[in-house]
Here is the input.
Amino acid sequence: MIGYLYKISEKPTDLARRVVDDHKTRREWIAAPWPLIVLSDNTFSLLGWAIRHAQRRQHQAGYYQHVMVLFRRGTVASQEFSGLTRLPLSQYMQGSHRLKAWHNPDWPSFRVAAALRYIRRRLDAPWYRRLYDPLSILGQWLGLPWLQCPGLNNCSEFAAEVLRILEPEFDLKNPTPSQINSWCQKHLVLWGRYDPER
Here is the structure.
């Protein structure tokens, strides 16, 4: 896949584009720097179908149905339907998952450390505080993205909380994974993509 890398200091309207092959191998993904904001689109999952149906979307470029955070080598913090959990990134490199990852190589170390502490604290919380917010899917389907269960998160709300620590100007409320992707395109650097068909 061909993509573009941007200099962070440039404004989106003035970006100097440099064409690169941004596809990364499985080995590169497992050894990736962290943290990374990782988006996923699994065209054949049941939950993915429900999210896509709720948003009345078909698979298309720039559309993602899941977002998670790579927070240590080969491991993501992912808000699954069964709850927030640690999973090997390799689990998302099976089947029809397409991945895309964003980062900022200039994140200050104190922000990275704070984000990693937050992720670990959330992962170590009691099971009932890590549950998925099923009401948010209904809210998306009804066009009411604010409709959510207080104290619970969906995947994009968890990733948004991490982004707010790393990027204080992150200002999206109740975002979808695709909206996070759009925000990242304007503010972060594309680290890479994974496509099982490559």
